[in-house]
Amino acid sequence: MRVKALNDLKELKRIINSNDKAQLSKFALTLNKDTYYINSLKSIFDVCNIDDINWTQKEGLNKVSIDNGDAISIYYIKFTNTQVILSEGRIQHSEIFGDYGDGYSSYESEGEYVTWYFFSIGYSGLN
Reduced to 3 states, what is the DSSP secondary structure of residue 117? Predict the structure, then answer.
């Protein structure tokens, strides 16, 4: 099941990168209605390396954290026993900012967010 799920994930990446509208329906996505989600998934695939997912027993993970001096963004692809979770988000201020109360931070946490995508793993691949 893992091999089929990995191949499906690579196929989803190919479909998103090529804007293949006809094939997106296999994953219950459409380019016209789900532009935000398509761009979000593209960001995850651009940052995370499917071929560099490392495994411990039945779980796999490729996770990247980026601190650009303003905020820390996180991207990951995680396999559990029954699902694949893709996620991206802006989770906190950069480590170079001071604490909120010290007068040096201009970071506004209202822009923080996390988006998750859950796919079930079955014998037929990702659902």
Answer: strand
